[in-house]
């Protein structure tokens, strides 16, 4: 009898696994065609100087609008792109598109913004990656110092020596480096000394504890950053009290729904770049 019910449970479970596996396989196939089909877009989330509240930069976030399923979260399709290797092609497209859009805004009279782009491990291991970055910069006219590549701790820890060599090569071009989701990975603090980075992005999970909790960790990150000459971005700022706390603590840059959600380029341009005449 036990065997019987075990088999029944298995029978109920298998079709679900199959459905998930099938969706994944279908998404991978469709993602392969999504670039050519015009289903991908880069959205931009504004970043502000914490003290002056001036717009200083944007983070590029990839969006996929599936013809039947509608918008699909990067949390679902980025892992598929990473495992299938498609991220190399997608990442190159994001870089090229985002550099062109941000440089275009400046040519149209907008402010000089920094552009942060998220990187996957697979992209960095691709031979010719730095050449792709340089091509995106040269093609758009964006100065190298205005591009910042966001790397995660887990990506860096996969191969520390390789990561350091890669980072040195990137920095030699003038492009900047940031550690994303800082504090959530498994990197050792000792590596902050070794990694030639410019910026730490404090993970949203800490920022969202503010102002009642989370202060100790964020104070510590700010002190570390100051010691190593790095700037700090707080991500996921949703409440005015969090912004106020970060300002008093001396955080450099803030990003979050309170100040602006990721937006389509035309919405970003309309909200932040149009000169309003009285
Ligand atoms: P991330 O790089 O840490 O990006 C921040 C994520 O937090 C974004 O989610 C953003 O929409 C969201 N966010 C920003 N402010 C707030 C806030 O105030 N509250 C809350 N709850 N969320 C906020 P998104 O766009 O869904 O992206 C998720 C992740 O997907 C990114 O995390 C990044 O790791 C990855 N990703 C997105 N675009 C790319 C890409 O072009 N290449 C690669 N390799 N990864 C990407
Ligand atoms: Mg990021
Ligand atoms: Mg992040
Ligand atoms: Mg992330």
TrEMBL record:
Residues annotated as domain EAL: 24-276
Protein name, per record: EAL domain-containing protein
Species name: Pseudoduganella dura
């Amino acid at each position: 009898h036990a065997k019987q019910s075990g088999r029944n449970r298995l029978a109920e479970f298998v079709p679900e696994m199959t459905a998930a596996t099938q969706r994944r396989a279908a998404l991978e196939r469709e993602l392969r065609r999504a670039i050519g089909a015009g289903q991908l877009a880069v959205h931009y989330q504004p970043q502000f100087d914490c003290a002056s509240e001036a717009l200083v930069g944007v983070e590029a976030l990839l969006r996929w609008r599936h013809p039947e399923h509608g918008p699909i979260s990067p949390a679902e399709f980025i892992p598929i792109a990473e495992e299938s290797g498609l991220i190399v092609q997608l990442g190159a497209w994001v870089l090229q598109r985002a550099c062109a859009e941000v440089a275009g805004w400046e040519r149209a009279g907008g402010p000089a913004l920094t552009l942060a782009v998220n990187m996957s491990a697979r992209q960095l291991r691709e031979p010719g990656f730095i050449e792709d970055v340089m091509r995106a910069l040269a093609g758009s006219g964006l100065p190298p110092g205005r591009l910042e590549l966001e790397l995660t701790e887990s990506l860096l820890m996969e191969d520390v020596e390789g990561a350091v060599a890669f980072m040195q090569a990137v920095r030699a071009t003038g492009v900047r480096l940031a550690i994303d989701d800082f504090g959530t990975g498994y990197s050792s603090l000792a590596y902050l000394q070794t990694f030639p980075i410019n910026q730490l992005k404090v993970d949203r999970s800490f920022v969202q504890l503010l102002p009642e909790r989370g202060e100790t960790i964020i104070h510590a990150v700010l002190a570390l950053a100051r010691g190593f000459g790095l700037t700090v971005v707080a991500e996921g700022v949703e409440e005015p009290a969090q912004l106020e706390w970060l300002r008093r603590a001396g955080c450099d840059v803030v990003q979050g729904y309170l100040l602006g959600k990721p937006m389509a380029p035309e919405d970003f341009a309309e909200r932040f770049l149009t000169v309003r005449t009285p």
